[in-house]
Amino acid sequence: MMMRNRNTSFLFGGNAPYVEEQYEAYLADPNTVSEEWRGYFDALQGVPAVDGSDTGDVAHAPVVSRFVELARQTRTGGRSENDVLSFARKQVAVQALISAYRMVGTRNAHLDPLRWTAPVPVPELNPSYYDLSHADMNTKFSMADTYFSDEDATLGDLVQALTETYCGTLGAEFTHLADPNQRNWWQMRLESSRSKATLDTGDKLHILERLTAAEGLEKYLHARYVGQKRFSLEGGESLIVLLDELVAYGATKGVKSSILGMAHRGRLNVLVNIVGKPPAALFDEFDGKTANLLPAGDVKYHKGFTGLLPTATGPAEVTLAFNPSHLEIVNPVVQGIARARAEVLGQGASAVLPVEIHGDAAISGQGIVMETMNLSNTRGYGTGGTIHVVVNNQVGFTTSHPEDVRSSFYCTDIAKMIEAPILHVNGDDPEAVIAATRLAIDFRAIFKKSVVIELVCFRRHGHQEQDTPNITQPLMYRSVAGHPGVRTLYAKKLVDERVVTAEDVEKYVHDYRERLDAAQTAEEKKPVHKQSEEVSWPQLLDGNVGRVYYAAPLPDLVQKLALRITSVPEQYSLHPLVGKVMTARREMAEGKRPLDWGMGEHMAFASLLSAGIDVRLSGQDSERGTFSHRHAVLHDQKRSIRGEGTYVPLDNVSDDQGRFSVTNSVLSEAAVLAFEYGYSIVRQNSLVLWEAQFGDFANGAQVVIDNFLSAGAAKWGQHSGVTMLLPHGQEGEGPEHASARLERYLQLCAQENMRVCQPTTPAQMFHLLRMQAVLPDRVPLIVMTPKSLLRHPEAVSSLEDLAKGRFNEILAESPTKEAASRVDRVILCSGKVYFELLERRRKAKKDNIALIRVEQLYPFPAKQISSELERYPNLKSVVWCQEESKNQGSWNFVMEQLLEIVKTPAALRYIGPEATASTAPGYRSMHVARQETYLHAAIDE
Q1: Quick check: is 81 in a domain?
Q2: Residues 711-723 pLDDT 10s
Q3: What range does the domain containing 723 cover?
Q4: Is the pLDDT of residue 44 over 90?
Q5: What is the pLDDT of residue 73?
Q6: Less Cβ around it within 10 Å: N or C end of the chain?
Q7: What CATH number is given to the structural domain containing 871?
Q8: Same domain, 712 and 607
Q9: Could you tell me if 779 and 843 lie in one domain?
Q10: Is 70 exceeded by the pLDDT of residue 59?
């Protein structure tokens, strides 16, 4: 920071003790000093420090030093004390003015390209607010706390510098940052440059070329495909300049890959002019030539792409992620992709840049934005900082005024939650856009934090091209109608600066149009074929490391792994309950007791890790497990603080093992599941799992499930092997702790888009997870995991079951022929209810009833069930029994399947609770009565 030589101050030296003496007296009793001194010290106490913090009770030396700096002028000889105090008060006022510009200067900035509303004056930015008069404008004051100059300057010059810096076409908010180093960085960068970018002729020509391309594509599509929706970028063409600079300038700072997520508006423009999608491929979509390439496909402004953008440092990889009309839900997906891509590159988080492009109404209105921002600095989900770009078209999503869509002053105020600096920039000034972009990249590179850039622009057409916006926004669209467009404005600026001629400008327009015409002509001559680049993330990007088909591990390996993961270093002092768990697991490893659920799951992870396959598990309480069954992370009771003093047995499976990651997630379902989905589409060779605290809570992530997990492959050809673990079961704990809404997943099942399973033994879970990790067909796996079965004495397995078995879609009994001939009723069920039926049958001593567990509900194991039913020659009834209400659970799904299997004279029946509005009774007594009713009907009647 620029500091003064205090020897030039007339207060330095002999006067300093006098200042300190006055301050001592003031601290003891303010009334003991003169009114002038008291007024000065009062003012000084209330003025923010250089770093933006409140000074509070200032220590003596800093007070003296600050007084010297504030009162310092050229040597004044024998000034009176009153003169000194008067000047000091004015210097304090100047400091307050400087602080005001830094804090709220952007509210007077020239940010609106339309200028359709009168600016609202900010009193704090007027010198008179601080009793600084017109006569003071020629008085020189210290600028020691600024980066404008090493010399004193007149108040008039200072105000001009502050206005240029904080009230131009680029405004900055950074005083909310807690770190003084970060605040000081912004002051230095903004004030030393007057918030301007240093651009040469080549830079300016490149801006013009990008604006020409942005405008040219929109006009071309508007003329050729009249009336078709495209969610035009017109009015916000500077977004292309911004993104181009993000990628190119980011590459100079070590960014190898940029991952973009954005909504509809301007998406087609970004696909072609930033990501590199061939215009011919876009024209194919407008012409309807690509409808047969995927089972479902999607509209063109939902699609993604991966390409290379040429930069001065070489080609830079750019990905635009696919996303549905739930616009902001792509944000955590982008974060997951970025985290995974950074791991693949192995160059740290800074090598991959996540870019989230928001609408002004969406960033302030969609809760997923806050949830995603909350991931930014966490251990399990951080990506080294995100650049958030807000395309503010000043209309919200359709026809709303700002007061209808948010309560905050700026739409970007949500970002202050994570202390992200915020830059507001006028879209009509592309050079200011470049300045903002470079500042954002530099800040992220240094501080590894997110930055927000609000691009204030407008929307030339309505919400889409068939809309009529001036019905509801007549004044705004009167201004829009008279706006020539940012390309025209910038071209005129460059012509005036003699950077280009008018003929050069027209040549840019002509050349881009010819490029599009050539693409159109070339496409008409060649056959349509699937674009290999259409998938926005190349599958198996991490190398496709020799995936093996499923096979159970050898017995000796199973025992070895079991012993390894149950060994705990002696220096770790475990909680007594955890110590008991680990002792029991050691006995399981030694074959002294059967394996419970937690051990079976750990063995699945260990066997995969030993084969070099990474395992990533996240969710609320996933380290310990919601039901205290997992204990993947062991805490030393004497020294476990914030991750220190912990031991992870699965980190110690073998020397060359895969990476094990288990994370207690933030309290979010939507953002975390979407993150894991994004992570999984990159890390195809890893087992990626998300666990709900209770299966019911996955409701909060329904948008992710509906639009990504169930349909991503059909719509976009984008494959994910993410696994969802959803605790499920009626335990008398009331609604919201009973049902993972199994019926919803089954309703989504079609075209073999996912697997839905409800395993009932540790061995089944072991084989299911291993199969999910190693089979080549990548589909999401939905697992209804147990609660009471975690410790059920019969829900156990042996080491041999792990070593020799496989996952069975159904688990059936194996009666002798004689026993099978006595059976006239077969009860099909899934999950915990099997053990309740089994116990009831034993008590009733019914040998005419056989039980079949359906462990995989989709794809439905029709052949296996049909084969089992053929065992029973005297079968009269086939019952589907479930613990969920009739309108929930599996019944409505399996009924149609079973009707094709059950043959006369046998009849298909449903036994279970009747349809209900809630998932479970709120009273345990009601739960017990309901359970008794269906068990009686299934076994006793």
Answers
A1: yes
A2: 999 999 999 999 9
A3: 555-804
A4: no
A5: 42
A6: C
A7: 3.40.50.11610
A8: yes
A9: no
A10: no
Residue that is written with structure tokens 């042996």 in the block: 798
Which positions ≥6 away from 411 have C-beta within 8 Å?
360, 361, 363, 364, 390, 392, 402, 405, 454
Asked whether the beta carbons of 290 and 297 are under 8 A apart, the reply is: yes
Which of 165, 84, 98 lies closest to 130, judged by CA? 98
Of 150, 165, 184, which residue sits at a domain end? 150
10 Å CB burial of residue 25 (0-12, 13-18, 19+) is: middle
As beta bridge partners, residue 355 has: 260, 387
pLDDT at 68 over 60: no
Nearest in space to 45 (alpha carbons), one of 66, 17, 75? 66
pLDDT at 9: 34
More confident residue, 550 or 361: 361
Compute CA distances 96 → 44, 85, 127, 579, whole Å: 10, 16, 10, 61
Question: Are the CB atoms for 578 and 631 separated by under 8 Å?
Answer: yes
pLDDT on residue 88: 80
662, 651 Cβ separation under 8 angstroms = no
Q: What tokens appear for 441 in the block?
A: 């990249």
Distance from CA of residue 453 to its chain's centroid? 17
Q: Are residues 690 and 591 in the same domain?
A: yes
Q: Is residue 539 part of a domain?
A: no
Work out the burial of residue 446: count CB atoms within 10 Å of its CB; fewer than 13 is exposed, 13-18 middle, 19 or more buried.
Answer: middle
> What is the rounded distance in angstroms from the CA atom of residue 719 to the CA atom of residue 713?
5
Best CA proximity match to 242, nearest among 452, 84, 446, 515: 452
- The model carries a pTM of 0.89
In terms of domains, do 798 and 815 share one?
A: no
Q: How many independent structural domains does the chain possess?
A: 4
Burial class (CB in 10 A: 0-12, 13-18, 19+), 408: exposed
Q: Please tell me the total number of residues recorded for the chain in this structure.
A: 941
Residue 96 structure tokens: 């307050």
**Are 720 and 770 in a shared domain?**
yes
How much is the mean pLDDT over the chain?
88
Q: Are residue 783 and residue 818 in the same domain, yes or no?
A: no
pLDDT one-digit tens code per residue, 614-671: 999 999 999 999 999 999 999 999 886 666 789 999 999 999 999 999 999 999 999 9
Same domain, 800 and 923: no
Q: Residue 50: which of 4, 122, 106, 98 has the closest Cα?
A: 98
Compute the average pLDDT of residues 249-264: 95
pLDDT, residue 399, reads 58
